[in-house]
Design brief:
By secondary structure, the protein is mainly α. The protein is about 70% helix and about 0% strand.
């Protein structure tokens, strides 16, 4: 029979209920799993990295890993889309902005450097795919379209007289992004005082000192 009073034990049970079991493995959320997976893909190669190796690196069972992502391919697709989406957004914003083609091209170059430094693991992965799967081939096609659109912008800047015309726009674009993409081989934010903004400015000056019409 209830007396209307509440014991200290009952109060503690209400105030501090037992924690619910978490789905997946404690300590990792989806973003952290993605980050570690991309690092492993870059270190070992995507094709050489098995789901078992990824699960072992994370200290998870395969079942716990599949709680976050349906497959290794999904992780790859998300990482590549992150890198490509950043580059495509830079280009779209530049093309929509006022100003000459040369000014918009500078915006693209600076923005591309910012994307690369800000998403270094994802861009590194993008630059190392070889088209061995449908996901990789789709990513390479997006890169090709991006390069074509930048080359068109280069041609416009040449037509305006801002850039030298004795270098083909497609070659110019490849050379520009060859320089930008090489940053993944040596730029380590934790080991340099060079900021992404400073790096973007340096790259832009090197490119345009060689390309500007005289």
């Amino acid at each position: 029979m209830s007396t209307g009073s509440t014991s200290a034990t009952e109060i503690a049970a209400v105030a501090d209920p037992a924690p619910r079991a978490r789905r997946g493995r404690p300590g990792y959320d989806r973003a952290q799993v993605l980050e570690i997976a991309v690092r492993l893909f870059n270190e070992q190669g995507y094709d050489a990295t098995s789901v078992s190796a990824l699960a072992a690196e994370l200290g998870l069972s395969k079942a716990a890993l599949y709680h976050h992502f349906s497959s290794k391919e999904e992780i790859l697709e998300i990482a590549l889309d992150d890198a490509l989406g950043g580059l495509e957004a830079v280009l779209e914003n530049a093309l929509a902005a006022p100003g000459t083609a040369a000014v918009r091209l500078v915006t693209v170059i600076e923005g591309a450097v910012q994307v690369l430094t800000g998403r270094l693991p994802q861009v590194t992965l993008l630059l190392r795919v070889h088209g061995n799967s449908e996901i990789e081939r789709a990513a390479l096609e997006r890169r090709r379209v991006f390069d074509q659109r930048v080359a068109h912008l280069v041609a416009q800047a040449q037509h305006e007289g801002a850039l030298r015309r004795d270098i083909r726009p497609t070659v110019t674009t490849r050379l520009m992004f060859g320089m930008i993409n090489s940053i993944i081989e040596w730029y380590r934010p934790a080991h340099t005082s060079l900021t992404p903004e400073e790096l973007a400015g340096d790259v832009t000056r090197v490119i345009f000192d060689g390309l500007r019409a005289r």
